[in-house]
Each structure stands twice: as structure tokens, then as C-alpha cells.
Hints:
This protein is mainly alpha-helical. The protein has helices at about 1-10, 20-50, 50-70. It has one domain.
Amino acid sequence: MLGASLLKLVKFGLAFTGTELIILLVGMLVSFLISVLVIKFLMNYIKKHDFKPFGYYRIILGIVVLAYFFLG
């Protein structure tokens, strides 16, 4: 993600005002912290639960998508 973001920044130019740079840095920091919290939550969830709900969700979604394309 960092590499892709850096490539976009270089592609669009690095001419930022001070306010834009602060907003960019705050956004990067917040997104990093939220991703760490979500990863911790998911790792704890996986330790305590199995993947059955995820499997059921994927099967049902697959049936719905196939029905949409075949009947729609």
C-alpha cells in the first residue's frame, strides 16, 4: 500500500500545501491505526471461532450471483 500510494503521489506531483500535507499524514496515520485494530480483532476472532459462517456466506453469495447471471 505504501508503494502504491507513493507512486500515485509522484505521478500527480509532490506540490502540496502545508495543510494538504498535514491532512495526508493524518489520514495515513488514522488508516494505519484502524487497520492494526481490525487485524487484531480478526486474529482474536479466528482463535475463538471457526470459518463456518464465512463458508455459508460465500456459498449463498455464489448461488445468488449465479442465479443473477443465469436468470437475469
